[in-house]
Amino acid sequence: MSTRMFGAPVQRSEDARLVAGRGAFLDDLGAAACAAAFVRSPHARARIRDIDAADAVGVEGLIAVYTYEDLSGPMAEPLPLLIPHPSILDSRTPYALAREYVHHVGEAVAMVIAEDRYAAEDAAARIRVDYEVGEAVVGIDAAVAAERTVHEGMADNVAAHLVQEVGDARAAVDAAPNSLELDLDVERSAGTPLEGRGVYARWEPASSSTGSDDGRLRVYSSTQTATGVRAAVAAKLELALGQVEVVVPDVGGGFGVKIVHPWPEEVMVPWAARRLGREVKWTEDRREHFVAAAHERAQRQRVRVGFDDSGRMLGLDVDLLHDNGAYLPYGVIVPIVTSTQLLGPYKPGAYRVEFRSLYTSTVIVTPYRGAGRPQGVFAMERTMDAIADHLGLDRLQVRAANVIRPDEMPYDQGLLFQDGRPLIYDSGDYPRMLEMIAELVDWPGFAEYRDRAHREGRRVGIGVACYVEGTGPGPYEGGHVQVETSGKVRVATGLTSQGQGHGTVLAQIVADELDVPLSDVEVTTGDTRRMGYSVGTFASRGAVTSGSAVALAARRLKDKALRIAADALEADAGDLEFADGRIQVTGSPVHSIDLSTVAVLSNPLRYAFDSASAAATQFSGSADYDRPPVAEGEAPGLEGTDYHSPLRCTFANGAHAAIVETDPDTAEIRILRYCVVHDCGNLINPRIVEGQVQGGVAQGVAGALYERMAYDSDGQLLNASLMDFLMPYASEIPSVEIAHMQTPSPLNPLGVKGAGEAGVIPASAALAAAVEDAEGFRVDRMPISPSELFELRRRHAAGGVPSVPARPSPASAPSGAAADAPAPSSPPPAGAAPPEGPDPSEPPVPSAREPR
Amino acid sequence: MKPPPFAYHAPTDPDEAVGLLAEAGAEGKALAGGQSLIPLLNMRLAAPSVLVDLNRVAGLGGVEVDADGVRVGALVRHAQLEADTAAAEAVPLLGQGLRLVAHPVIRNRGTTVGSIVHADPAAEMPAVLALLDGAVEVRGPAGTRTVPAAEFITGPMETALATGEIATAARFPRPEPGTGTAFVEISRRHGDYALCGAAAAVTLGADGRVTRARCCLISVAPVPLVVDLTPQLAGGGAQTDEIDEAAAVAAERTDPDDDIHAGADYRRHLARVLTGRALAQASAAASASAAYTGADR
Amino acid sequence: MTEEQHDIRLRVNGIPHTARVPARRLLSDCLRHDLGLTGTHVGCEHGVCGACTVLVDGRPVRSCLMLAVSAAQHDDITTVEGLAAPDGTPHPAQQAFGECHALQCGFCTPGFLTLVAAYVRDNPAPDEEDAREAVTGNLCRCTGYQNIVNAVLRTAEITREQDGGAGVPHARPSAEHDGAAGDATAAAPRTEGGRP
């Protein structure tokens, strides 16, 4: 038996190619393609009176200019509402090219095709669009006020409205011995992958292989869903699904923005390629990405909470205002996720959540890594800290009083989740999670550190935030595993990769299933030619859904291999085992057959093409003349296909703790330590999981302290460049200390949970708490910049921002905090003793790393 | 994001370069390091019809250090100047400013003189030039002239260069003996343009008393803002309370704007904090300098 | 209106190339689209992200902030494709990035690799703080930088191992390299030219 690959921190198989400069990203393809550029609206709200391309005609290299007037049939209709939901009152989606109205700066108005991008931009700059400029609706206040509407024919700006309630939350809050009300605010950010979007299409003339008289389309797209783009493009271009192939090359980051499909550009490029009979490519530039892709996060939240004297919630009543931008192509997934995942690891008592999703004259809002969870966690964790302060209790102690215990799993929160299925947590040990984060960050030791820092004139603070993340939603993913006659194993799944290392992780799973060397396994993702049934890469679902699918597919392959091997070895299949690339009689390696030979035997041949295949030809050996060469019920080839369709999401969880220092003079905020406890079930590749956590935390820190979308009241994005949108460099991002928990999921064959988004989710909440702790006043709005912290200090000094009380030193382990909390169902593992109160006999240990 | 078309010239003779620029008039642009100009071209925020590439022009390279100070040719990259130990020794403020200019990769290509000519109110090197009372050597159709720093930058992204003129060198005078300098700034990200920055020069007499003190603030006024703080500090020992008072005076002179990265009040506050820090560092450096410590220490 | 074309000669990864380009062609586009060296990536085209970083005469610069016609005045350009030894042995930085899981999507990686190759050549023994500062100036959206910082340290370590081991200096594509035998920090190619 070779070394088990599942759980091993193996190096990625993708890397050799990528570090050599042999990656194949969208713009690396199609050297001969002509280039597309788009004329985009400079106004947030306008009616198009006229488009005049006369000036562009003389541009050398110009091939074509298209406007809405050139579109017909489905192309002339609005792009689809991808995820319909009963709460949607009025769904507006954009046209492929603007029809009469534009609703945000950056909306595509005309398409230019030219010999190269330089010429395309020259021509685009010469196209005169006559706009009748209207007034924009920017920000949640303006959207709610509805003095004007974003869209024609609407009475207000409410796109969707939903109330979910478990119990009578308002009555519970009113009846509670203690209650609080919080107003919170989170601003916009965006995933901002370093590679923007891109589409490259070519039209292949009809032949008998195209299955139609009008040819076939090959589309390459930098997308998170190959099958989604295929279906959408086929529908828009009125092609049969079989006429459209979508191939997803290397993708330079996605973070959610590339799950939206079809983008206007994603249908226009194939449409133009077909119309021109030429290869066409569009590579989004950075400025376009800021104004024509998608943003996320902006929400206004009002929380009312009622709780008992131990800090246990009795009722939670949340009102959300969600800015969804100018259109709603992705439905209401983000506010639904906020509404449901807000609960985190806690039992809210009675719960009511209401959201209004609002149109504004800005770029669309669709999921960005975390997808509504960072906002929900911000609301819940700010509430936890407020409860603790109100009661004078330790902040971890209040959390411990509210978490769901392991013996309550599976735990039904009574709501409907974003996948349309019940919000039932499958597994997790939240009390232990709290103990571990306290231990990792040395929560009890912080008071001593703070005192020492104070004596040096420094301000430091600590904050913690917890989350539960529903991962791995269905409907399904598929896996196809094939052993070739060379012994190489080819694996395919339909979802796409943007750096998550699927090529390595899925190979690890299959290598274990078949007991073959990892180097013999090769993985294809995101190619509709290899796997036509798939959903896409989002919601931390790759390992859960495709991982499970390829495991199941490998098991199907194994069953088949055993039948063939049993025949060949004249043994009972039940007596056989897989070992080192062979099938052998259990415990008897001399009675064995190579998997490559099984592959040869699985596919009876007439024609040989090499010595291995000769063994499968019709005169090559003994044959049973009473049976057909391919037995009834079998199919040729040593391969297996299967799908994993999870019952519902599996719920990962974790806790982050941050220690920050704020400069008393300049209000600069520096992170001294950042600690993560993370439970994504069984780890397939710890190295990759840690990379996901580190990258997620970096985006979380970015969203908390650096990034925002600065719109003015006219709907102009003032920071549409990486100069002014402050994506952090290495100098701004802390090292992350990670401790893993592994609570397996019972909902999939691997016991895994998703890991892709977790790192980003609680960062804003943890950092807000830490800054608040350092400063001694309430922080209820993120992100926060030094300039804003300076303003808060002034307002606090003037009495306009409430103080938070001095935090008590935690005297005992968080899990034992609530007097009547039941004991944990199982004792903590060895080496993980709950933190205890300061022992006077021990010298104090500095807990926070000294600043560099 | 591709540049618009332009006619391109790469002359080797300075007079040819000047002639080409003069001929192009307002439509002409000179290219040195390009680290400010090319982003503007790529975003089509600048669209010159003629680009005169100075990179092959003879006589514009070289760092010369003499008794007066440091003369930096128009094609000297920031990194080249930063690595020049003789220049650093003669004018320590050069290195103190250069290390704050963007990132090393930008400094590998960007030129110090180009940065001065670009005249961004948040840029460090114009402040270094201004604080030191340096000058810019200019060559134009009418010949050469030397423009004092105080007259060179006339507004945000505006200089005294006339059409057809190029800056051929910048001169950074040696500070008088007993002078210490410092440059501190705060930016949102490492390497970004500063929210506010302060350069300071403090000169101590043989008795250890301040004889001259000045600061130059960036990002809080349309041009690098030089404030003479000699009246506040002269004769004193640069004690904390004296510095605080001087910093307050400097901050009052600023005229910052609100922008998406910081409010005006915060910038004014930073001007005070950073002026204080720069003055303290500069006076410490002055104390440590050989001119003051003398042989008896 | 016909745009004037310029015939330029570029020496890239030790190989002379010719191209016919308009003056406005960015070096990044020239490398990628005229010479087919698509390993150099374009992430922002305003000099902030660093994905397009290449070595010009051994020094890292932004190829999106350089015109191809200006680049032709220089002696030598090295892209990510030119970092490995002629026999295909990965450059220490390439090896280190894989070992340290310093890349995820891989889009920014070529810019980091050229930067780190030059940095470690000039700074053979960085500490962690140096390493972090060395890569500040290039953006990565996936990794959170921690493993990139580790990879800088590992690059230096591999380089020292190689120099202290078989003594095979890492091959440099540039024939014009000074070839100093005593250069103990074999890493990125560098041509010491008489640049102004």
CATH superfamily of the largest domain in chain C: Beta-grasp domain
CATH architecture heading of the largest domain in chain C:
Roll
| The CATH top-level class label of the largest domain in chain B | Alpha Beta
The termini of chain C sit apart by 36 Å
Mind telling me the C-alpha Rg of chain B? 20 Å
CATH domain fold name of the largest domain in chain C: Ubiquitin-like (UB roll)
Number of helices of chain B: 13
The helix count of chain C comes to 6
Strand proportion of chain C: 5-15%
CATH class of the largest domain in chain C: Alpha Beta
User: What proportion of the residues of chain C is helical, as a percent range?
Assistant: 25-40%
- Structural class of chain B, by secondary structure, is alpha+beta
**What ranges of chain C have pLDDT less than 50 throughout 5 or more consecutive residues?**
166-187, 190-196
Number of strands of chain B: 14
What is the gyration radius of chain C calculated from CA atoms?
Answer: 16 Å
Which strand order do you get reading across the main beta sheet of chain C?
Answer: 4-3-5
Protein name (chain B): Molybdopterin dehydrogenase
Organism (chain B): Streptomonospora alba
Domain FAD-binding PCMH-type (chain B): 1-177
Keywords (chain B): FAD, Flavoprotein, Oxidoreductase
Structure description:
The complex is a heterotrimer of chains A (852), B (297) and C (196). Chain A has 852 residues and is of the alpha+beta class. Chain A has three domains: 32-134 and 194-292, Aldehyde oxidase/xanthine dehydrogenase, a/b hammerhead (Aldehyde Oxidoreductase, domain 3), CATH 3.90.1170; 299-473 and 647-809, 2-Layer Sandwich (Aldehyde Oxidoreductase, domain 4), CATH 3.30.365.10; 476-644, Aldehyde oxidase/xanthine dehydrogenase, molybdopterin binding domain (Aldehyde Oxidoreductase, domain 4), CATH 3.30.365. Chain A has 19 helices and 29 strands. In chain A, the strands form seven sheets. In chain A, strands 3-5-1-12-9-10-11 form a seven-stranded mixed sheet, sandwiched between helices. Chain B has helices at residues 14-24, 37-42, 78-82, 85-90, 92-98, 104-109, 112-118, 124-131, 149-152, 230-233, 240-252, 264-288, 290-293, and strands at residues 7-9, 28-31, 50-53, 63-65, 69-73, 135-140, 143-148, 153-155, 158-159, 166-173, 179-187, 194-204, 210-218, 225-228. Chain B is α+β, with helices and mostly antiparallel strands and 297 residues long. Chain C has two domains: 5-82, Beta-grasp domain (Ubiquitin-like (UB roll)); 92-164, [2Fe-2S]-binding domain (DNA polymerase, domain 1, Orthogonal Bundle). In chain C, helix 3 packs across helix 4 (109-122), helix 3 (92-99) crosses helix 6 (146-164) and helix 4 (109-122) crosses helix 6 (146-164). The longest helix of chain C is centred in the C-terminal third of the chain and has 19 residues, at 146-164. Helices cover 31% and strands 13% of the residues of chain C. The interface between A and C is large, with 59 and 60 residues.
